[in-house]
């Protein structure tokens, strides 16, 4: 255990950088005084130092801006337009953006600034550069062609360390390669079509939903699907399902009798809630920027939820390590290569063959859990929302399912591969609401990034600066997707628009990231989502939102009506921490398929 808490160590490091000019100045004045060169009373030294620190740092920041502009000009480049507030450190801008993030439509303020300043601008808060972009050429450069110069970096690590640790989503360099090499074999094609696991948990989830519907209440689909993905993920990860569906009661809507809300939380429920709270805390850190540790000096906002998360994961890790130890002592281990997967082997047992370091195992398990549960649940929630709003799409999708699979058969890998419209529906849902709407990288060295604006001069990005790319906004650009970019239309992935827009420019669609860090579980996610949607629509023929069941404070505000784009038409409130979710859940009613089918 570290002698100094991580947050406090960051504060001390920043404090040292803050005061070091004053320390140097005071030492210089004391030396000059003792050398009788100049006499400066002690009180005067204190006043000079204390009153000079802030002006010094402001001047230093302005000097860096001037230096960057000179460097850019010398390279035939330009700096992106800067967006800063009027208060010192742009505190007013930070406050406005935080309020918009919590109370507005997803990416709203940032999208407006893209319309005003162009596809790339410098969000300059607390004298730090964060270059925001929706330019596909910049995103391609950062994620692929100039991959080695763009890392998660120390800044990203400081936001995420207390939750993601050193896992694959937070690691760089050799450690990232190590994590990647451990998990890659498990997501090969041979390991991703164990549909009996999907089927078992899908049947349980749908049965639970039917029971609730027969009581006359709407179902929070976001909650039900999160339980499905949690049970599926834990069985694949640990060979031990946490049974969040079996051991828990689906929540009742807010307008149900109070007695129905006073239900105890299972261990799985507590874990899920704590993990979401922890993600919310690190998302807030990322929005606050490098000054976030000062707001958590006395209490880390991730400490309490992570105690619950760790208590949930620790026994599972302990059992895996004990199994590995027993197997080794009994001579049952050996002979097979580290990247070979045994038939009965779960991901955790596979990881234990690579390392028995409990910290690495803990971090990697949570990283994969985030990918396996939260992202997939969010995407299926969005898909069901769109199916509730576009009955023509739902009808056509059911027809494809009944034609390819039938009303009761379990879908196979080949069935799902042949269902082109199902894939198009999923893709269109992920286009409008990608699981990870924003991501970022830090420049290792000074960089020149392509500029798609008319002047054509590249953008100069100084070393250490971050580039935040918005997949959410990029997926809605009309110059990338056509004039109907804000409309939900799965056919864009099937008709002439596919070859006009996406085929020649594949980086405009990044639901699973791209480049060397592309999601290893991409095909697993497609299979899981496809399987569940098939089973869902074999059981239900219509889907409708129940607005009355939606908690009032999580309904889209009335003032959104008539706003441009999706904001003006959505009937749910999309939000995000690390991943997209429906605020307050997605309360829906399903009509069961007639029994005579």
From TrEMBL:
Organism superkingdom: Eukaryota
CDD domains on file: CYP52
Pfam families cross-referenced by the UniProt entry: p450
GO molecular function: heme binding; iron ion binding; monooxygenase activity; oxidoreductase activity, acting on paired donors, with incorporation or reduction of molecular oxygen
Gene: CYP
UniProt protein name: Cytochrom P450
Required co-factors: heme
Tagged with keyword Manganese: no
Keyword match rRNA-binding: no
Keywords, ordered alphabetically: Heme, Iron, Membrane, Metal-binding, Monooxygenase, Oxidoreductase, Transmembrane, Transmembrane helix
Binding site residues for heme: 519
Protein source organism: Phlebia brevispora
Segments crossing the lipid bilayer: 40-61
Stated family: Belongs to the cytochrome P450 family.
């Amino acid at each position: 255990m570290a002698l100094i808490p991580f947050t406090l160590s960051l504060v001390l490091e920043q404090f040292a950088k803050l005061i070091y000019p004053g320390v140097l100045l005071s030492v210089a004045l004391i030396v000059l005084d003792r050398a009788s060169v100049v006499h400066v009373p002690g009180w005067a030294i204190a006043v000079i130092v204390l009153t000079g620190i802030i002006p010094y740092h402001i001047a230093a920041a302005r000097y860096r801006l001037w230096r960057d502009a000179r460097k850019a000009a010398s390279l035939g480049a330009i700096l992106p337009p800067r967006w800063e507030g009027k208060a010192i450190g742009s505190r007013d801008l930070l406050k406005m953006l935080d309020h918009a993030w919590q109370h507005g439509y997803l990416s709203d303020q940032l999208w407006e600034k893209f319309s005003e300043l162009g596809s790339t601008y410098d969000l300059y808060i607390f004298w730090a550069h964060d270059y925001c972009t929706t330019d596909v050429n910049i995103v391609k450069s950062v994620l692929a062609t100039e991959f080695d110069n763009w890392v998660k970096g120390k800044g990203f690590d400081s936001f995420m360390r207390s939750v993601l640790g050193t896992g694959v989503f937070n690691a760089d360099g050799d450690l990232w390669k190590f994590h990647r090499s451990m998990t890659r074999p498990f997501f090969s094609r041979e390991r991703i079509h164990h549909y009996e696991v999907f089927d078992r948990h899908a049947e349980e989830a749908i049965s639970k939903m039917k029971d609730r519907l027969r009581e006359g209440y709407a179902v929070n689909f976001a909650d039900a699907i999160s339980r499905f993905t949690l049970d599926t993920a834990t069985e694949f990860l640990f060979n031990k399902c946490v049974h969040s569906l079996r051991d828990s009661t689906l929540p009742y809507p807010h307008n149900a009798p109070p007695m129905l809300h006073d239900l105890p939380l299972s261990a799985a429920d507590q874990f899920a809630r704590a993990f979401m709270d922890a993600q919310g805390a690190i998302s807030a850190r990322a929005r606050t920027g490098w000054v976030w540790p000062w707001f958590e000096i006395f209490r880390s906002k991730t400490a309490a939820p992570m105690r619950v998360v760790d208590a949930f994961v620790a026994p599972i890790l302990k059992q895996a390590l004990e199994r590995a130890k027993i197997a080794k002592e009994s001579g049952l281990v050996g002979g097979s290569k580290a990247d070979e997967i045994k038939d009965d082997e779960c991901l955790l047992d596979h990881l234990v063959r690579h390392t028995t370091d409990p910290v690495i195992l803990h971090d990697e398990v949570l990283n994969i859990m985030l990918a396996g549960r939260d992202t997939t649940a969010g995407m299926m929630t969005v898909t069901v929302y769109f199916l509730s709003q576009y009955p023509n799409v739902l009808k056509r999708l059911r027809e494809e399912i009944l034609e390819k699979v039938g009303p009761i058969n379990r879908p196979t890998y080949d069935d799902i591969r042949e269902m082109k419209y199902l894939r198009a529906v999923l893709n269109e849902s992920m286009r409008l609401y990608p699981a990870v709407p924003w991501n970022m990288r830090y420049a290792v060295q000074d960089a020149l990034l392509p500029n798609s604006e008319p002047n054509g001069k590249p953008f100069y990005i100084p070393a250490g600066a971050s580039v935040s790319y918005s997949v959410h906004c990029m997926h809605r650009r009309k110059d990338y997707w056509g004039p109907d970019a804000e409309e939900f239309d799965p056919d864009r992935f099937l008709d002439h628009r596919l070859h006009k827009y996406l085929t020649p420019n594949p980086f405009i669609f990044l639901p699973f990231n791209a480049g060397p860090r592309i999601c290893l579980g991409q095909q697993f996610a497609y299979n899981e989502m496809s399987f569940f949607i098939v089973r869902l629509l074999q059981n239900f023929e219509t889907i409708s939102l129940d607005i009355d069941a939606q908690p009032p404070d999580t309904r889209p505000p009335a003032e959104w009506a008539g706003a441009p784009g999706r904001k003006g038409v959505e009937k749910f409130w999309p939000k995000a921490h690390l991943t997209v979710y429906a605020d307050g859940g997605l309360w829906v009613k399903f009509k069961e398929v007639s029994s005579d089918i």
